[in-house]
Structures are given as structure tokens and as C-alpha cells.
Amino acid sequence: MRRATVYHSRVNLSDFSYDLPPEQIAQTPLPDRSASRMLALDRDSGAWADGSVRDLPERLQPGDLIVLNDTRVVAARLHGVKPTGGHVEMLLERACAECEALVQLRASKPVRPGLMISTAGGAIEVLERQDDLWRVRVPGPVLEFFDRWGEVPLPPYIARTADAADRLRYQSVFAREPGAVAAPTASLHFDTPLLEAIAARGVETAFVTLHVGAGTFQPVRTEQVEAHVMHSERVSVGARTCEAVVRARARGGRIVAVGTTVVRALESAAQQSAGRGGALIEPWSGETRLFIRPGFQFRVVEALLTNFHLPESTLLMLVCAFAGRDAVLGAYRHAVEAGYRFFSYGDAMFLARGLDGAKPR
Q: Using 50, 70 and 90 to split pLDDT, how confident is the model at 217?
């Protein structure tokens, strides 16, 4: 019998609000990936400590397993022109056939099936509407077409046009599986020296793939959080990663997720395994709509590195589920007061139990 996650209490959208001065929203990355600050939060006590991402190896323990998302961001934003001369902006959601894709379309006037949109790479035909998205036909393999003619889809809170540097910096150094339209931003802090220091600490590394969709930026529109329906994202958790999780648990190591995408991937696979009456976690690929909010019972993940997230977002709700809403929002208030940089190109948090050097709130 499949064991369902039980949510014990009702939570409201306003429970996840906090004040953030606009000037603390990072608009550009730091020159060095691992130079960002890192706020460590103890999941048990709510105590915190200021530090740097370069401190991460010292926060890990020999025998731990750190899990990364190897998705690769596609240049998913593309501009075009209708026959009338009107401007159209397309944002790729996903490829659904070799030359067909689901996209978000923004235009000054309504879009209809049959419309031909001119782009620098050729004409795109609008085929049909599918819920909030449009299915279109492009003149070539979808991911290759967008990577050649599109631009980096920076999040809406970055108030500038993407430039050549973003092609490199809005991508992790271990990205290899193309398909995301937004970066798994906790991964952006990693560079080769940091990865080498983690390995030297005696920490094993494994990968999952979760292709982040444009829906990650969609706001929650219901005050009753449980009424929100998550967007669907493609996930693959392979046999090697599942075996690494089992080995780490057997030797007493922790499963350390880098980013909320890794949490959702691992916990989705664990739920599928539990539904089959299987082991802790088994290989799984598919679509996930897993909505992790306070009351969720984590099966796999024991520590988390993540960026600071938007107020009232599902990502902030996930972090609050992991470490407690009061503790997380208290840490956020400290981060605002201490001048941390927020969101995709901003600073990080490390959340675990029994952190040395954490100060009482």
C-alpha cells in the first residue's frame, strides 16, 4: 500500500511573507562562484552562524553523500514578430517532439492557432493551446534551435537583459543534461576547487536530473496553500544515485541535497518506491508535481544547501517544511539585516542538525 504524506495543519500563503529591500536582490553574480556568503541554520535549535560557501566542506562529515542536479539550462527566451508587425516573446517550457515544443507566449494581442511567427532562426507555427501554454512547431530540433537563437532566460526579478557572461554563469559547472529553462541556483556556487575540497573531506558525490520549468516562477494564487497545484517537472533518479544513498545511510552518513530541485527529485523517487512497497529509494524517471510544505515527512534528505527564496513561494515553503517556519523566517530576517544577497545570483543557506558554532536566536 502506498503511504501518503500527511499534512497535519493548514497553512496560509501570508504565513510565508517577509520584507526584502529591492537593493538586496542580486542582479549579477560575484566574480568567483564560491565567494558567496552562507548562513548556516541548525534545524533543531534554530540557531544560526554567518559564513561563506567555501566553509561548506567543513560543514560536511566524512561519509556524507552530496547530491547535485546536473540539468543544463537552455537559452529558452526567444523574440519574434507576427505578420502584422506585433512583437511576440516566447519562453520554452519543454520539448514535446523533435520539432515541437510547449512555450509561454506573450503578445500585445491574442494569439491564435495557425499564426506564423518570424524569428531570426526561421518561422515558428502556433499549433494549439494547452492550458496556459502553446504547442508550436519550430524549424529544427527544439533544444538545438533555442540554444542557437534564444537568450538566457534570466528570472523576472533580475532587471536587465541577459548578456554573454550569463551563458556561462547562469549554468552550473557540472551541467550536462539539457532541458531546464531556469537554473538550479544552489548549484551555481560550485567551482572546481570547492568540489575538490568536498571530495578531499571524504564526501561522496551523486547526481539527479530535474529539468526546472518556467512554472517555478509562477506565484501561488490561493491563500489556502493546500489548494495550490504545482507545475510538472521532469525527473530522473538513476540506479547509481540510489545505490549511493543506500551506501551513505549504511555507513552513517547524511544525504545532503544541493538545492530544492534535488530535494524534490529524491523525495519524489522515495515516494514512488514506498508506493510499490520497495526500498528507501529506487531508480525512477517521470513527471513530478510534489508540493513540499510544512507537515511533509522527509524520507531521504537530511541536510540542504539552498539559496534565499522569494516571499510566499513554494520554494520557501519547502525550506520551512525542512527546518521549521519560525526558524527559517528568523534566519531570513537576520540575512536581510546583515545585508545578504538574495535569489538566483545571491547568497546561500546551509540547513542541518547539530551545527557547531551556531548562535542562539
A: confident
Question: What string of H, E and C letters represents the secondary structure of 179-222?
Answer: EECCCCHHHHHCCHHHHHHHHHCCCEEEEEEEECCHHHHCCCCC
pLDDT in tens, 32-66: 999 999 999 999 999 999 999 999 999 999 999 99
Interatomic CA distance for residues 260 and 258, integer angstroms: 7
> 54: which DSSP letter?
G
Pick the closest to residue 181 from 313, 68, 309, 91 (CA basis).
91
Tallying the residues shown for the chain, one arrives at: 361
Question: How many domains is the chain partitioned into structurally?
Answer: 2
Q: What digits encode the pLDDT tens for the residues 329-360? A: 999 999 999 999 999 999 999 999 998 777 65
CA-to-CA distance for 115 and 126, rounded, in angstroms?
Answer: 5
Q: What whole-number distance in Å separates Cα of residue 349 and Cα of residue 331?
A: 9
Burial class (CB in 10 A: 0-12, 13-18, 19+), 342: buried
Domain span at residue 239? 13-73+166-352
Average pLDDT rounded to a whole number, residues 234-250 = 98
Please tell me whether residues 190 and 52 are part of one structural domain. yes
Is the residue at 5 inside a domain? no
Q: Are residues 225 and 314 in the same domain?
A: yes
Q: Are residues 201 and 339 in the same domain?
A: yes
> Are residues 109 and 184 located together in one domain of the fold?
no
- Predicted confidence at residue 7, as pLDDT, reads 54
CB burial of 234-250 (b: ≥16 within 10 Å; e: otherwise) equals bbbbbeebbebbeebbe
**One-letter amino acid identity for 217?**
F
Residue 159 lies in a domain: no
CATH number at residue 205: 3.40.1780.10
Give the list of residues 6+ apart from residue 110 with CB closer than 8 angstroms, or none: none
